[in-house]
Design goal:
Length: about 350
């Protein structure tokens, strides 16, 4: 009963026409930011997260505390728990699901392949099953990944480009997710929006990602490993700042339910949409390192090695014209500015505030 009360409180809407959103993976990097942004404009938000230990669980707990201070409650549980999901939908008539829970990371798939199947396939299906039977049926927005473009080296990537050559199990499960969600759209009329995020970075980010671990190692005077592609070509990523990604997510939620009229009457077929959310300006990894060096006022000890065949792709670059047109998506933060904000957060979060300032 205590639990129900917290869920109801968290789900309260404070603006007219506000949404009621279940955010899975709410203790994660993107989930925390999306939840805060929705809550701040008056939407009802309930989080769900299993607080797994893929990376430092204390960071997830700190994000939970941040959300709690803004009256967002995170239910601790797994998206594979059908009974828990049914109970949540019983307590709250969610208008939208923002599905961000997943086993992320490309390289970890070689250590623990089953965790990808558990969260990105089985968990996705459980959540879709609950969503398609819920009344009202929520619009379903979820995180796919730029990794679905796999070995395709024709850049920039457009949504209609081939995605049948995944380079990692992570990518394969995201691609499978795009096909699985399509069947729920086709059979049950569930409104689906898949968002292909391109290397998201920023405050409260993920410790397993390069920009984060480089920062940690540089500050601790430890070497960093920089991968180099074939023929000594630098790797590059279309790094996208978290606030831009959040705007894309919110824009997707706001436009997702458009084909469903009031009283659950459908005005047309439910949409199945896929969008790239990137920054359209790839930056090489050595440039990323030099920006970090500048902001940290420290030199990195670089170990440059040939990229092992571990699932990484050499280059990503998003064509975002669809998202611009249909979601009003417009990234505004370049890597210099975004990393400055990240470094400032990092120094303060990890208590480096004595004498160390950011340029
Ligand atoms: P994250 O790991 O910080 O967040 C995911 C959260 O989901 C974690 O808090 C985790 O505890 C939770 N979770 C995992 N499995 C779960 C399960 N079975 N049940 C309940 N909770 C579970 O990752 P993120 O960077 O915030 O990524 C969010 C989404 O965006 C993921 O789907 C990810 O695959 C996708 N994505 C991220 C990036 C990026 O650069 N960050 C790029 C492309 C796609």
């Amino acid at each position: 009963i205590h639990w129900e009360k917290q869920v109801r409180n968290s789900a309260q809407i404070h603006r007219s026409g506000g949404l009621s959103v279940l955010v899975t993976g709410a203790a994660g990097f993107v989930g925390t930011h999306v939840s805060l942004s929705l809550k701040k404009r008056g939407d009802g938000v309930v989080g769900l997260d299993n607080f797994n230990n893929y990376y430092d669980p204390s960071l997830k707990k700190a994000r939970r505390a941040l959300l709690k201070s803004h009256n967002v409650f995170i239910v601790e549980g797994d998206i594979n728990d059908a009974r828990l999901l049914a109970k949540l939908f019983d307590v709250v008539a969610f208008t939208h699901v923002m599905h961000l829970a997943a086993q992320a990371g490309v390289r970890y798939a070689m250590e623990n392949p089953q965790s990808y199947v558990h969260s990105n396939i089985a968990g996705l299906v459980t959540l879709l099953e609950t969503s398609k039977s819920a009344n009202p049926q929520p619009a379903f927005v979820w995180a796919s990944s730029s990794s679905v473009y796999g070995l395709n080296d024709k850049t920039p990537f457009s949504e209609s480009d081939r995605t049948d050559q995944p380079a990692s199990l992570y990518a394969a499960t995201k691609k499978a997710g795009e096909e699985i969600t399509h069947t729920y759209n086709h059979i049950y009329g569930l409104s689906i929006t898949g968002l292909r995020f391109f290397t998201v970075y920023g405050p409260w980010g993920r410790p397993d990602m390069a920009y984060f671990s480089f920062t940690r190692n540089i500050l601790q005077g430890k070497p960093i490993t920089v991968y180099r592609g074939k023929n000594r070509v630098d790797l590059a990523r279309d790094f996208t700042y978290i606030d831009d990604i959040v705007k894309g997510c919110v824009g997707s939620l706001d436009t997702a339910g458009k084909s469903t009229g009031s009283g659950g009457k459908k005005r047309g077929p439910a949409p199945y949409r896929i969008f790239n959310l990137g920054n359209t300006s790839p930056v090489t990894v050595p440039t990323l390192v030099s920006i970090l060096e500048k902001h940290l006022k420290m030199k990195a000890k670089k170990n440059v090695v040939d990229m092992p065949g571990n699932g990484d792709v050499p280059f990503t670059h998003a064509n975002i014209s669809s998202a611009r047109r249909e979601l009003g998506y417009k990234p505004t933060t370049d890597l210099q500015t975004g990393l400055k904000k990240f470094v400032r957060w990092y120094l303060s979060y990890y208590g480096y505030n004595h004498g160390k300032t950011v340029n």
